[in-house]
Design brief:
The complex is a heterodimer of chains A (218) and B (759).
Chain A (H helix, E strand, L loop, with lengths): L1 H8 L14 H27 E4 L7 H7 L22 H5 L10 H11 L21 H7 L4 H5 L11 E4 L6 H4 L17 H12 L5 H4 L2
Chain B lengths: L4 H16 L3 H12 L14 E7 L8 E7 L2 E7 L12 H5 L1 H5 L8 E3 L8 E3 L2 H17 L6 E5 L5 H13 L3 E4 L4 H12 L5 E4 L6 E5 L10 H9 L6 E5 L5 H5 L2 E3 L6 H14 L5 H7 E2 L4 E2 L5 E2 L2 H6 L3 H8 L3 H13 L3 E4 L11 H13 L9 E4 L13 H8 L21 H7 L9 E5 L3 H4 L3 H9 L3 E4 L6 H5 L2 E2 L10 E3 L4 E2 L2 E6 L12 H12 L1 H5 L6 H9 L2 H8 L1 E5 L5 H4 L7 E2 L12 H4 L17 E6 L13 H4 L7 E2 L2 E6 L1 H7 L6 E5 L4 E8 L7 E5 L38 E7 L1
Parallel strand pairs in B: 6-7, 6-17, 8-21, 9-10, 9-15, 10-11, 12-24, 17-18, 18-19, 25-30, 27-29
Antiparallel strand pairs in B: 1-2, 2-3, 4-5, 4-19, 8-16, 13-14, 20-22, 22-23, 25-31, 26-27, 28-29, 28-31
Helix pairs in contact in B: 5-21, 6-16, 6-21, 7-15, 10-13, 10-14, 10-15, 13-14, 17-19
Classes of the chains: A mainly alpha (218), B alpha/beta (759).
C-alpha cells in the first residue's frame, strides 16, 4: 500500500502544477492593448506632438481688402514683369496704403505700429510654402492653364480671419502641405493638399502625364 | 490570470503592428527627408523680385563687365555682361566665384590693430576714427623726424583713381616710393618708350580682329592677362584665323592653337628675330610703313658721322638654321611660320602681359614689337594698339619743403636711379635692399599696401616676407585677410568690389581705350570703407599742404570730378570708350624724329655697341647653379587657379583635377623621359629644391612638358585668407627667384634651376 500511497502521492494531479503561463486569451488581450495604444498614439497623440500651432503676426482680413482693391487677388499677389510671382506682399507694398492707422481694427493698429513704423518686414506664415528642392512656377498654372487661385489655395480670398497655422516641428513647413487629415483621405479641411503626389494626380488628370522629374526638381 | 513574459512580448508585438497602421513611420520618414533639405548651413537664396545689376569685376586686372542677379540686398549669381566691350559675356571661373569672397570668411570685417607678434594673425577690432588717427599719427611722426621719403606704397596698379590718390598722397607727403607690383606691363612700357617714345601709355593687342595671332608664351586661354577678353576673342575664331603658340609646355592655349612650337624657354626672342629674318629676306614686310614711318631699319649714320647697324643687318644673322640651333625648333617650321605670319591679312605678335611668368626681357619684347612693325600692324585693326588713359581733371599737388625734398630723393627700389634710370618700379629688388639694411637706415620705415599681396606674389616669397616684416609700420588696405594683411600692423579694410564705386582702367593687353565703372550691387556687409575715402581722411588728418591736396568731400566726389563730362556715360553705361580710333602713323610716335625706332637710340644699355641697343638675342641664365639643379622649374597658369593677389576661392579649388592637387598635395608635371632618369613614377612623392627653398610634391608624368622642365601650377600654397583656402599645395613663388636685368633691374628669369629627388 505504502507503495501505492507513494504512487498516489506522486500522481501529477496531486503534485504542484508545473509552470503554466497565461492563457492565449490573455496574450491576445495584451496584443490588442498594444495595437490599440499604437493606433491611438499614432492617429491622435502623434499629430499633436508633430505640429505646433503658430499664431499669425497679424490676423489679416482678406475679405475686407478684396472689397477695396480693383483687381482681386492680383492687386497684391501679382506677377512681376519677368513672369515670376510676387507671393506675399512686402512691407513697401502694404505701406502704399498703410502709412498711418486708417481704421479702428486693432490688427491694423498693430501692423502699423509694430511693422510699418519700425520698418520691419512682417514674418507672414505661408501656408503653401514648399521646400527648396521644389521648383514651382505660378505662371504656367495661372496664366497658361487659367486656374483660379482658389483651386490650390482654397477660399482664403473671401475669409475675414486667417485660418489656423500649424508648423511641422521637424521640417518647419505648414501642416497644409500634408493636409490636416493625417490619413490624407476625404475632402481637405481648408485647401487642397500639396505633397508631390497631389501635384502628380492633378497633372495626370489634367494633362495625362505626370511630367518629368526635372520639371519641378531642378 | 497570469501575466508573464509572453504577455509583454505580445504587447510589444501589438504596438509594433499597430504603429505600422498609423502615420508615424511614414510621416516621420518623409519629414526627415525634408528636414535634410533644410540644414541651417546650406545657403538658400532669398525669394523676392530679381534685379540684374551691371558692374565690373576687379579681382584681377582683366576688367570684365559682369551682371549680378540680386534679390533684395543679396547677390545671388554673377554672369558675364554681354554688352561690355572688354569681355562681351565671357568670364573666368574667378569672376563667377567671386561671391564667395563677398560673403566668405576671409573678409576683414572692421579696422584691425595687430596685438600678437607680427604675422601671428592676432588682431583686435578698432574703430575707424581710432585707426585713422593711429595711421596719421605714425606718419606725422615719421615726417617730423625728417624721414618722409621712407614711406612706401605697394599697389597692384598705377592706373585708376585710387592708385592716383595714393601717388598723390606720397607726392604731398614727400616720398618717391610708389611701387607697382611686377607684371608683363613693365617690359611693354619700356619697349614702348624705346621704340615709340611713349611714357605711361598702354600697349594692347586687338585679338578680336587679328587673323593670325603669334603668341610668344601668352596664356591666352589659361587665365592670364585679361581672361574674359581673350576667351571671347578665341570663341569667335573661325576657320580662316590662326593661333600659333610658342611655349615649352602643352598648355590649354597650346592645345587649342593651330600650331604649337615648343621653343626652349628663354629663346623666344631669337625665334622672333628668325621670323623677322625670313620676312626681311623675302621682302614680305610692309614697305609703306618701313619707308615712311620707321627709323633704324637700314644701317644709319649719326650726326658725328658714325655708321650704325640697322635692324635689317641685325636680323640678317638670324637665319632659320641658326635660330633652329638656339630654339630647338625645325628650321623649315620657322621659315613657314614667318611666311604665314607675313602673308596673313592682320597678323599680330603678342608677348608679355598674359604670360604666366612675365620674364621682363627687353630684347624679346622689342623684337616682338618689331615684328608687328615689320608687317605694318601698329595702330591698325587686328594689330598692336597704343593708347593713353583718360586725363583726370585733378589740380596740382601742393607741396611744402619736406615734400619737395622727399620726392627728389632716390627711390628705395632703385628704379629711376642712375643704375636703372629708365625703369619705373622694381619691387623685385626691394626685399634684397631691405634685408641688407639695418633697422636704423632701413629705406622703408612705413609701408602701405593697396590692391596687392606682395608677401605672396613676390618671387622668393619667404625672403620677401622676412624683408617686409622688418618694416616697422605696415598698413594694409586689403578687403581680405591675405598674407600681407596678416603681416600688417593696421588693416583698413576696403569694400568688396560689389559694395563700392571704383573706376577700372583699360585692362593690360586689351586693344581698346575702355574705362569701366565698378558700382555697388549690395550694401557693405561689414564695417569696411572705400580705400579712396580712407586715404582722403588720412591726408586731411595730417593737415597742412597734404590736407590741402585732398580738398574733396569724399572719394565719390573726387571720382565724378576726375572724369568730368565722361562721368555721365560712365555711370549710365558702366563704361566709356575714350578714344574710338588709335592715332594714325604720322602722329603715333613720340620719338625725336616722330618715327618708329627699330634702332632704339634711347636705350640705356649695358654696353655701348649697336648690338647691345638693338634687340639681339642674349642668352639669359636663370638663378641657381647648374651643378645642383639639372632641371628648370617653370610656373604655369590654369584658368581654374587664381594666381594673383587674391587666392582661389573654394568653388574654384573644387574644379582642380586630382592630378594637379590631391588633398593638400600639389603635383608637378615632368616629362616621362625626365622621370625615368630620376627613377620617379606617376604619383611618387618627391622633394623639389631650388636656390629659394624646397617643397614636397607629387609627380604627374606629362608628355606635354619639355624634358628637363618641371612645371608647377601658380596660385596655390596660400597661408592666409581662411581655413577653406589656406594650406593647399605649394606657393611656386616660394621656390622662384628673380634675376635682375643689368640695365633695367627688371626680373628676366623665366624659371629657376631645380633638383627633384624621390622622397
Amino acid at each position: 500500500m505504502s507503495t501505492q500511497t507513494d504512487n498516489t502521492s506522486n500522481t501529477p494531479s496531486n503534485a504542484p502544477s508545473p509552470k503554466k503561463g497565461a492563457t492565449g486569451w490573455v496574450i491576445l488581450a495584451f496584443f490588442v492593448i498594444g495595437f490599440g495604444f499604437s493606433l491611438l498614439g499614432g492617429w491622435v497623440g502623434f499629430p499633436n506632438m508633430l505640429y505646433k500651432e503658430v499664431p499669425h503676426p497679424i490676423d489679416f482680413n482678406h475679405a475686407l481688402h478684396m472689397d477695396l482693391v480693383f483687381d482681386g487677388c492680383n492687386s497684391c499677389h501679382y506677377f512681376r514683369a519677368d513672369g515670376s510671382f510676387s507671393g506675399a506682399p512686402t512691407l513697401n507694398e502694404c505701406r502704399d496704403c498703410h502709412q498711418f492707422v486708417m481704421g479702428t481694427d486693432p490688427n491694423e493698429e498693430k501692423f502699423v505700429e509694430e511693422y510699418v513704423l519700425q520698418d520691419k518686414e512682417v514674418p507672414w506664415n505661408i501656408f503653401a510654402k514648399q521646400p527648396d528642392n521644389v521648383y514651382f512656377s505660378h505662371a504656367p498654372h495661372v496664366k497658361g492653364a487659367g486656374m483660379d487661385c482658389a483651386a490650390c489655395h482654397g477660399d482664403i480670398g473671401t475669409s475675414e480671419s486667417l485660418r489656423p497655422y500649424q508648423e511641422n516641428r521637424i521640417t518647419g513647413y505648414s501642416r497644409d502641405i500634408w493636409g490636416w487629415e493625417m490619413s490624407r483621405l476625404g475632402e481637405p479641411k481648408y485647401a487642397p493638399r500639396m505633397k508631390m503626389m497631389d501635384c502628380v494626380n492633378c497633372h495626370v488628370e489634367q494633362t495625362d502625364s505626370k511630367g518629368s522629374c526635372f520639371q519641378c526638381h531642378k | 490570470m497570469k501575466i508573464d513574459r509572453r504577455c509583454f512580448l505580445s504587447l510589444a508585438g501589438g504596438l509594433a503592428v499597430g504603429h505600422l497602421l498609423t502615420p508615424i513611420p511614414w510621416k516621420i520618414t518623409d519629414d526627415i527627408a525634408i528636414w535634410t533639405q533644410n540644414w541651417p548651413w546650406t545657403p538658400v537664396p532669398e525669394t523676392g523680385p530679381v534685379t540684374w545689376k551691371n558692374t565690373v569685376c576687379t579681382l584681377c586686372a582683366g576688367g570684365c563687365g559682369i551682371k549680378v542677379r540680386t534679390i533684395r540686398d543679396r547677390a545671388i549669381k554673377i554672369e558675364g555682361r554681354t554688352d561690355h566691350p572688354v569681355n562681351k559675356g565671357s568670364l573666368c571661373p574667378l569672376g563667377y566665384a567671386s561671391l564667395q569672397y563677398l560673403y566668405g570668411p576671409s573678409r576683414v570685417k572692421t579696422p584691425m590693430r595687430r596685438t600678437g607678434e607680427r604675422g601671428s594673425g592676432q588682431f583686435e577690432a578698432i574703430s575707424w576714427d581710432e585707426a585713422i588717427s593711429e595711421v596719421s599719427g605714425k606718419l606725422d611722426a615719421l615726417r617730423k623726424n625728417g624721414r618722409a621719403h621712407t614711406l612706401a606704397c605697394i599697389s597692384g596698379s598705377d592706373k585708376g583713381t585710387v592708385p592716383v590718390l595714393f601717388k598723390r598722397f606720397l607726392d604731398a607727403y614727400g616720398s618717391p616710393n610708389f611701387i607697382r607690383t611686377p607684371s608683363g606691363r613693365d617690359a611693354h612700357e619700356i619697349a614702348a618708350y624705346l621704340a615709340q617714345g611713349h611714357k605711361d601709355k598702354n600697349i594692347g593687342f586687338d585679338l578680336e580682329n587679328a587673323t593670325f595671332i603669334l603668341s610668344f608664351g601668352c596664356g591666352l586661354l589659361d587665365g592670364s592677362g585679361a581672361p574674359g577678353y581673350q576667351f571671347n576673342a578665341y570663341s569667335r575664331f573661325d576657320k580662316g584665323r590662326t593661333l600659333v603658340q610658342v611655349e615649352p609646355r602643352l598648355s590649354n592655349t597650346a592645345a587649342r592653337a593651330k600650331k604649337w612650337l615648343p621653343a626652349k624657354p628663354g629663346t623666344e626672342g631669337a625665334l622672333a628675330l628668325g621670323v623677322a629674318h625670313v620676312i626681311v629676306k623675302n621682302g614680305l614686310y610692309d614697305a609703306d610703313f618701313i619707308n615712311g614711318y620707321a627709323f633704324g631699319f637700314e644701317d644709319w649714320t649719326d650726326e658725328g658721322g658714325n655708321i650704325h647697324m640697322g635692324f635689317k643687318s641685325l636680323v640678317n644673322e638670324y637665319t632659320p638654321q641658326k635660330v633652329s640651333a638656339i630654339t630647338g625648333l625645325d628650321a623649315n617650321a620657322i621659315e613657314s611660320l614667318a611666311r604665314d605670319f607675313a602673308r596673313a591679312e592682320k597678323p599680330v605678335a603678342v608677348c608679355g602681359y598674359n604670360e604666366c611668368k612675365p620674364s621682363a626681357n627687353i630684347d624679346k619684347t622689342l623684337a616682338v614689337h618689331a615684328l608687328n612693325a615689320l608687317v605694318g600692324n601698329i595702330n591698325q585693326a587686328g594689330g598692336m594698339i597704343v593708347f593713353a588713359d583718360p586725363e583726370y581733371a585733378v589740380s596740382e599737388v601742393r607741396k611744402d619743403r619736406i615734400a619737395t625734398e622727399g620726392t627728389a630723393k632716390p627711390r628705395a627700389d632703385m628704379a629711376g636711379t642712375d643704375r636703372y634710370p629708365q625703369s619705373r618700379y622694381l619691387l623685385d629688388l626691394l626685399p634684397e635692399v631691405l634685408m641688407g639694411a639695418n633697422e636704423n637706415n632701413l629705406p622703408v620705415q612705413a609701408l602701405m599696401v593697396t590692391g596687392a599681396n606682395p608677401v605672396y606674389t613676390t618671387e622668393n616669397s619667404e625672403t620677401a616676407r622676412a624683408a617686409f616684416a622688418k618694416i616697422p609700420f605696415i598698413v594694409s588696405f586689403s578687403s581680405f585677410m591675405d598674407e600681407t594683411a596678416k603681416l600688417a600692423d593696421i588693416i583698413l579694410p576696403d569694400h568688396h568690389f560689389l559694395e563700392g564705386y571704383r573706376d577700372v582702367p583699360a585692362p593690360d593687353g586689351v586693344g581698346k581705350a575702355v574705362t569701366s565703372l565698378s558700382a555697388p550691387v549690395v550694401k557693405p556687409q561689414y564695417d569696411t570703407r572705400n580705400t579712396g575715402d580712407v586715404i582722403i581722411d588720412i591726408a586731411r588728418s595730417l593737415g597742412g599742404t597734404i590736407g590741402e591736396s585732398f580738398p574733396w568731400k569724399d572719394y565719390d566726389t573726387f571720382l565724378k570730378q576726375a572724369f568730368k563730362e565722361h562721368y555721365r556715360d560712365l555711370s549710365r553705361n558702366g563704361y566709356v570708350i575714350h578714344a574710338e580710333k588709335p592715332l594714325p602713323w604720322d602722329r603715333a610716335f613720340a620719338t625725336e624724329n616722330g618715327k618708329y625706332a627699330f634702332y632704339p637710340t634711347r636705350r640705356h644699355a649695358a654696353g655701348t655697341d649697336d648690338k647691345s641697343r638693338l634687340p639681339a638675342y642674349r642668352e639669359l641664365d636663370i638663378p641657381g647653379d647648374k651643378a645642383n639643379g639639372t632641371l628648370a622649374l617653370i610656373p604655369y597658369k590654369s584658368p581654374r587657379i587664381a594666381a594673383g593677389a587674391v587666392a582661389n576661392p573654394p568653388f574654384m579649388t573644387k574644379t582642380i583635377d586630382a592630378n594637379v592637387l590631391k588633398k593638400e598635395m600639389l603635383f608637378i608635371q615632368i616629362n616621362p623621359e625626365t622621370a625615368r632618369g630620376l627613377n620617379l613614377r606617376q604619383g611618387d612623392t618627391a622633394v623639389i629644391r631650388t636656390p629659394a627653398g624646397e617643397a614636397r610634391v607629387r609627380v604627374n608624368l606629362f608628355d606635354g612638358v619639355m624634358p628637363g622642365i618641371v612645371a608647377m601650377p601658380a596660385g596655390l600654397g596660400h597661408t592666409a585668407f581662411s581655413k577653406f583656402i589656406a594650406d593647399k599645395g605649394v606657393n611656386v613663388n616660394a621656390l622662384l627667384k628673380p634675376s635682375a636685368d643689368p640695365a633695367y633691374g627688371l626680373n628676366t628669369a623665366w624659371g629657376v634651376r631645380a633638383s627633384l629627388q624621390k622622397a
